[in-house]
Amino acid sequence: MRMAKILFKEEEAGVLTQHDDASFTFRYHDSWISDSSKVGISLTLPKTKKEFTSKFLFPFFYNMLPEGSNKHAVCNFNRIDLDDYFGLLMITAKNDAIGAIRVVKSNLLESENK
Predict the structure, then answer these.
(1) Angle (deg, nearest 10), helices 85-92 and 68-78
(2) Residue 107's domain spans which residues?
(3) How far apart are CA 15 and CA 86, in angstroms?
(4) CB 16: neighbour CB atoms within 10 A?
């Protein structure tokens, strides 16, 4: 299992998890849900207590990935398999992503404390 913190405008909104069976879940933190000034990160991932599940990387996050020769260059440089979308997302969206979302590697203990 691999986990990533999802930051919205530098505030931690929730956790994206890739499970051992390669499925994905996204869950907002309770503190994000309870704050009425916080918005959902995407129209396809609206702010709710519900945990979102998918057999594939959610389209919202998949669309943040590089394509074509840029994808090949990033994967070669970072020694990531071309099909490792979660690993690619954590590399490319941790510091410099378009928009308000950043994706930062997390560990299980950090995420359980939210």
Answers:
(1) 90
(2) 2-112
(3) 13
(4) 25
Contacts of 88 (CB under 8 A, 6+ apart): 65, 66, 71, 74, 75, 80
Q: How many domains does the chain have?
A: 1
Tokens for 93, please give them: 């969206």
Taking alpha carbons only, the member of 112, 92, 109 closest to residue 101 is 92
Contact (Cβ atoms closer than 8 angstroms) between residue 15 and residue 104: no
- Phi, psi of 73, deg, nearest 5: -65, -45
DSSP string, 32-75: HHH-TT---SBTTB-S-SSPEEESS--HHHHTTS--HHHHHHHH
pLDDT tens-digit profile, the chain (114 residues): 999 999 999 999 999 999 999 999 999 999 999 999 999 999 999 999 999 999 999 999 999 999 999 999 999 999 999 999 999 999 998 887 778 899 998 875 554 545
Asked whether 26 and 52 are in contact (CB, 8 A), the reply is yes
pTM: 0.88
